[in-house]
Amino acid sequence: MQNFTFHNPTRILFGKGRIADIAREIPAGARVLITYGGGSVVSTGTLDEVTAALQGFTLFEFAGIEPNPTYETLMQAVDLARREKIDFLLAVGGGSVIDGTKFIAAAIPFVGDPWDILARRARVKSAIAFGSVLTLPATGSEMNSGAVVTRRAGNDKLAFLNPLLFPRFSVLDPSKTFTLPPRQVANGVVDAFVHIAEQYLTYPVDARVQDRFAEGLLLTLIEEGPRALHEPADYDVRANLMWTATLALNGLIGAGVPQDWATHMLGHELTALHGLDHAQTLAVVLPAMLQVRRAEKRQKLLQYAERVWGLRAGDDDMRIDLAIAHTRSFFESLQVPTRLSAYGIGVEAIPALLAQLERHGMVALGEHQNVDLAQSRQVYELAV
Fold it and tell me: DSSP alpha helices (H): ranges in 11-159?
């Protein structure tokens, strides 16, 4: 196991009715900006619950944060927050709203062009405190310090991390997911699955706790993901999925182990140029990535085949083939296609995707930093 430092300061309020408890988590007298996306938090009554729980606070609202939050929209919220002297932010929504709110929190006190936080890794010295009310489990953003933001002007989709950007608290009420469309439920399962895979399917370092934890989370998604689509009002199913998605990327299973993230980087360019949902890009890229890099991931792929998919018969190569095929079939069973051709994207799109990777410095990806543009080309070609 590799050396690591693990710290996660986010308080989790889990279960039914926990929105009622948020007032005690926010400093008295705070000027609170509530951020959210579309109309679903309004139509489902979640926003009303939040505002009722915050009686006595000075409240402002900012709506319209996109599924892939854009710099252009988020800067409107920054302007509002600066103008109204906001000192606490509350994100109500899924990972995109929380990601966007993290950028807003960092940008409000930032001196200079806030895009430099992403494009130039400019140092974030302070951030506005914030919390979240999660309505779409997928990204783990409710319990980590990372975010991804898109800039329409340059077709850029970039990630950043900062320890100042952990939510102070997050409400996880599984009943808030009952009204989600099936596509969003399926996307959340795929997103969480690939988050785990990026931290697990690398190479062994005898991190037995992290491995078993990751395998347990993957098995939970395999078991409960389809049930969430067929039994949409089952609270226990939604509770298990919600907590799994949070644990998939709160830093715990990634502590002390090598991490990959090449699948995410290639996926980001598909979203930026072609508008695919984040999870759709992951479902397309991961099976191809595993196939192209099967030699360097061989030991963990065999472990994955046996422990997650129960594959023990046949030679090593057959079991790896089957494990990758099972992964693809699982995504397809959730109605998330695993081929670029399903989205009308062919080989002619690959040069532009590679140019984006090069422009963003994504030329040495993966746990060994050896996924260059040539390997990325192979992955994209295999994904068609």
Answer: 40-43, 46-53, 71-83, 95-107, 116-119
Return the pLDDT at 39.
83
Residue 89 has which token pair? 């932010």
**CA 134 from centroid of its chain's CA atoms:** 13
Rounded CA gap, 342 and 340, in Å?
Answer: 5
DSSP single-letter state for residue 70: B
**Own/partner long-range contacts of 291-297 (Cβ < 8 Å, ≥24 apart):** 291/324, 291/382, 292/375, 292/378, 292/379, 292/382, 293/366, 293/371, 293/375, 294/320, 294/324, 296/203, 296/368, 296/370, 297/201, 297/202, 297/203
Provide the residue ranges of all domains of the chain, joining segments of one domain with +.
11-177, 182-383
pTM of this prediction? 0.96
| The pLDDT of residue 105 | 98
HSE (CB half, 13 Å, CA atoms) of 84?
20
Provide the token pair at 312.
């023990």
Mean pLDDT by 10 residues, the chain (384 residues): 98 98 97 94 95 97 95 98 98 97 98 95 96 96 96 91 97 96 97 98 98 98 98 97 98 98 98 96 98 98 98 97 98 98 98 97 98 98 98
Which residues lie across from 90 on neighbouring strands? 34, 131
Residues 43, 215: Cα–Cα separation, whole Å = 37
Q: Which residues face 161 on adjacent strands? A: 146
Residues 265/362, Cβ–Cβ less than 8 Å = yes
Three-state secondary structure call for residue 276: coil
Counting beta carbons within 10 angstroms of the beta carbon of residue 136, is it exposed (0 to 12), middle (13 to 18) or buried (19 or more)? buried
CA dist 275 and 51 (Å) reads 33
Per-residue exposure over 346-381, b if at least 16 CB sit within 10 Å of its own CB, e if not: eeebbeebbebbeebebeebbbeeebebebbbbbbe
Biggest alpha carbon distance in the chain?
66
Residue 86's CB is within 10 A of a number of other CB atoms, namely: 23
| Architecture label for domain 11-177 | 3-Layer(aba) Sandwich (3.40)
CATH number at 182-383: 1.20.1090.10
Q: Are the C-beta atoms of residues 254 and 205 closer than 8 Å to each other?
A: no
C-alpha closest to that of 92 among 48, 56, 57, 129: 48
- Enumerate the β-bridge partners of residue 169: 11
